[in-house]
Amino acid sequence: MRNASNNEIKLLRKLARKKYRENEQRFVVEGERAVEQVLENGLVEVETVFVVEGKAASDEWSAFSASIEADVLDEVADTENPQGILAVCKMPDEISANELREQSGIIVAIDAIQDPGNMGTILRTAAWFGAKALIAGKGSVDVYHPKVVRSTAGATGSIPVLSGELEEIFTELEANGWQILLLDGGPESINLRSVQPAKKTIIVVGNEGNGISESLLHSKRKKVRIESAPGQDKVESLNAAIAVSIALWGLQ
């Protein structure tokens, strides 16, 4: 196993920041199990696996692994215990609205979701239910943030991602038959159970604290709510990722 080069270590340091991840079109996966999962599922291209000095590299990645000093790995890792291993992976190409127009199924759209754990869970759950894509609106946490990648539990790259202005993307997709369901707990919302699934459906979940942006609340778009148990008045709302999970299940 060769030693990590200075350029590779510089790249690892840069990838802690979003702008460099975007410039380099690369991201980091930390931890032995997570690295094994991305290698097993083959959904993203693993470029290099960095293994702390003294740790044996698995036969699966020995051909593209590099040894790295423990103090350097601790410096570049996002976790306190990176388990002596991390990998640099190439970002998959984003899907375009034009590619989505003629497809059918369910798309999940997120409006300024900021918690990495929520984002990772939404990505993983959307993949589980066979969503065609995830649309990440501006103000949302980066889908390749290290904490998001860990939260997907190896599902990073499992569904296509499109980033951009939600209103622009929605307008284009609506013109091609996609209906939009806005997850909203307000009194004007209809019960999710009463919604007839359509061949082309976009589920939208809003920011953890502020909900869906006013600019997206058009009259032609349906606001839907997930009903609580009768008489339940102690819990104000559902976690964003949980709400998406229930909506995906309910529209199957």
Write the H/E string, N to C. EHHEHEEHEHEHEHEHEEEEH
Strand coverage percent: 15-25%
Largest sheet: 7 strands, parallel
Assigned CATH architecture of the largest domain: 3-Layer(aba) Sandwich
CATH class of the largest domain: Alpha Beta
Q: Specify the number of helices.
A: 9
Inertia-based shape:
elongated
- Provide mean pLDDT, rounded: 91
Q: Which structural category fits the helices and strands?
A: alpha/beta
Q: Total domains, how many?
A: 2
**How are the strands ordered across the major sheet?**
8-7-6-11-9-12-10
Number of strands: 12
CATH superfamily of the largest domain: SPOUT methyltransferase, trefoil knot domain
Assembly type of the shown chains? single chain
The CATH topology annotation of the largest domain reads as Alpha/beta knot
Organism: Gracilimonas sediminicola
Protein name: RNA methyltransferase
GO cellular component, one term: cytoplasm
GO molecular function: RNA binding; RNA methyltransferase activity
